[in-house]
Design a protein that fits this description.
With 148 residues, the protein is mostly helical. It has six helices and two strands. The chain has two domains: 2-107, no CATH class; 117-148, no CATH class. It has helices at 2-7, 19-22, 25-30, 45-49, 75-86, 90-107; strands at 126-127, 146-147. The N and C termini lie far apart (47 Å). The mean pLDDT is 87.
Amino acid sequence: MADFWKQVGVAVEQVPVSIQQSTDREFRAQFPTFDINEIAMDLSARNVRRFHSESTPLPENRFTQAGNASRYRSAELDSYIDGYLTSIPRDTRMANLGKMVHHQTENLTVMGLLNTGRPTVFNKRLQNITGVSSRATEPWNVQEWDLT
């Protein structure tokens, strides 16, 4: 990954992290790095809320808050997130979502690097197959399958 960053002109210094450091919440929260994680990118309240300032690990919350690993905090972004999470009319929710995404892309508060594909193959004779979640393809409800 470091070589890819270098190819696009980003200076990279690789720093080994011990097992103890990797589990230290304060160290992880304040370590100046790119953190590469596989995370869901759906529009559930849980996933949207992770970009809120309240989800930022800080000394005042003993680094126990989780989600906002970038530690980017903005009252403007928080207002869009709050509007998205509390608005009932769809048009209002979508307007807040649009403002939220615009703010994040304009300020590059988070940057997706890759997507993980998990293809699943099954015979077309099998019916009633559903994924384990809305973003997963792994079938899990074998008790409901039918063979035609």
